[in-house]
Amino acid sequence: MAKTLTPLIKPLGQALSLLPFILAAGMSTFNAHGKALGQVAPVFPIGEIDMLEWIHQRLKGFEASGQLADMQNEFTERALQSIENPPPVAGLTTTTDPRTFYVDPSITLPKDIIAPTTGAVIAKAGTRVNPFDSRTWPKVDGQDVLPLFELSKVLVFFDARDAQQRRFASEYQNAKPIKWVLTGGSPNKMATLLDARMYFAQQGHLTQSLNITHVPAIAYQDGTRWRIDEVNVSGLQPLEVEQ
To answer: Looking at the record's lineage, which domain of life comes first (predicted)?
Structure first.
């Protein structure tokens, strides 16, 4: 097959080398003998839309019609509403059969932990670390790298939309400082009612990590684990607040 194609390669190369000249000659012939065919459709100038100018003109139109002010007011109202009443954590209910359970806070390191000054590996990927158990913490030369840790606060989860849960929160006391975590309702109103800072369990990440499915729930450190106490509020007098 190779012997059959060999005689064709050289003539083919010569023909390809002449191709630009053939095309140029064809274009010259077309220019010399071609003639105008006339305009067969409307002709428009070629141009590009300046998007910034287009947006500016649209905003001026909205401003003139009053739509811009309406849009700004609507945006402000939505923002204030999301602050005053954040989306509640889905899937949480009250219970009349409260239970106490424990959660292991241990995590598995996804990658090696490197000492920034020496570059030494102080904890390898796959190591299980419990923030409540200093025996599992990374060590260098047998010495603890991190100080001993004890959670000083109690976390109290409750839904402020529920009048009985509001009553529970208003009466609950603990020897440790309380960190209030809302799963629903208005943080501002509860901050005023309890005279305390409110936190919100945004998107339920914290309740999921602590396996909380019923509220109110009290979470605190017990040895090397989280202890979660559910609370039955069905017998409490509802606490109404001004809407």
So the answer is: Bacteria
Element (H, E) at 126: none
* Domains of the chain with CATH codes: 87-105+147-243 (3.40.30), 107-144 (no CATH)
Q: Which amino acid type is present at position 97?
A: D
Angstrom distances, CA of residue 56 to CA of 47, 59, 61, 75, 149: 18, 5, 9, 19, 56
Q: Match 């105008």 to its residue by tokens.
A: 36
pLDDT tens for residues 143-156? 666 667 789 999 99
Tokens of 112: 């090696």
Are 157 and 207 in contact by the 8 Å Cβ rule? The answer is yes
- Strand 154-159: give its sheet, edge to edge: 100-103, 225-230, 217-222, 154-159, 178-184, 198-200
Reduced to 3 DSSP states, what percent helix, strand and coil does the chain have, rounded to the nearest 5?
40, 20, 40
CA–CA dist 167, 194 (Å, integer): 10
